[in-house]
Specification:
With 275 residues, the chain is of the alpha/beta class. It has 11 helices and 5 strands.
């Protein structure tokens, strides 16, 4: 089964592309890392408890207000009030050392839980015979998960101001500075695009989304035609019926992914040395 890593940056249109891939003519299963990230910190989970333990004492507005039902003295099974994601975002997004440190702590809580949840979903789709599955991961490169996918698709825009405009249109409560902090908290999407293309033909592609929806649909079509051409459906069926071969191919793909990552890091190191 082909693992397609779908990534981008905030407000580049990755969620729109994910929705297109989930519908005909593609009809691919989507494993959404953002959705899983919400689930693994729901009240009652170990992730929720860890976040409360680290951030609760210093973030008074960390939890949403209690609902009337949660205030009932007869409700002894309530797992707790949900996290206020906006308050948590204000705590970890930004350029200061404290915020960067808090962001690392939060990622250290959420990312391992999300990875385990993703593994279980991948196995779920593999045993059901799907030829490919999309891993929708905003921080694909940053988390190192690009090593484990066969194809990386980056949804990108060529102009940074497009990101800022779309983000503030979508999240009207954000100030200009808050929007800028959120964009800066992720690596430059244009660099991600170069990184995907650097993986080589059939292993990395870019969907440009500077224009309208019609153009985006054509970009997705072009990209998926290339993916299907280099990763035919019959090969996925072979891997399904020969699990030993699937394990070997999976190990081979991880090795190729690791090599591509190492090559990129070496090139970036050389560029920094020249400055």
């Amino acid at each position: 089964m082909l693992l397609i890593g779908l990534t981008g940056s905030i407000a580049t249109g990755k969620s729109t592309v994910s929705a297109l891939l989930s519908r005909p003519p593609y009809s691919l299963p989507i494993i959404d890392a953002d959705l899983l990230a919400r689930k693994v910190v729901e009240p009652g989970t170990p992730g929720y408890a860890s976040i409360i333990a680290h951030f609760g004492a210093t973030t008074p507005d960390l939890l949403l207000p209690a609902s009337p039902s949660s205030l009932s003295p007869h409700d002894n099974n309530s797992p707790g009030r949900p996290l206020d994601r906006a308050a948590l975002g204000r705590r970890v997004f930004g350029d200061g050392e404290d915020r960067q440190r808090d962001r690392k702590v939060l990622n250290g809580i959420v990312h391992p839980a999300v990875r385990w949840a993703m593994v279980k979903e991948v196995l779920h789709y593999y045993v059901r015979g799907y030829w490919a599955v999309v891993l929708d991961i905003p921080l694909l490169f940053e988390s190192g998960l690009d090593v484990f996918v066969g194809v990386v698709i980056v949804v990108a825009v060529r102009r940074p101001e497009v990101q800022m405009w779309r983000l503030r249109e979508r999240d009207v409560h954000l100030s200009e500075q808050e929007a800028r902090d959120r964009v800066r908290s992720q690596n430059d999407v244009r660099e991600k695009a170069r990184r995907a293309e650097g993986r080589g033909a059939g292993r990395g592609a870019v969907v440009w989304n500077d224009m309208g929806r019609t153009h985006l649909q054509e970009e997705v079509k072009r990209c998926m035609e290339s993916v299907k051409r280099d990763n035919p459906r019959w090969w996925g069926l072979v891997l399904l019926v020969v699990p030993v071969l699937a394990g070997f191919v999976g190990g081979w793909e991880v090795g190729r992914g690791w090599w591509a990552r190492r090559k990129w890091e070496e090139e970036k190191g050389k560029e920094k040395a020249k400055l």
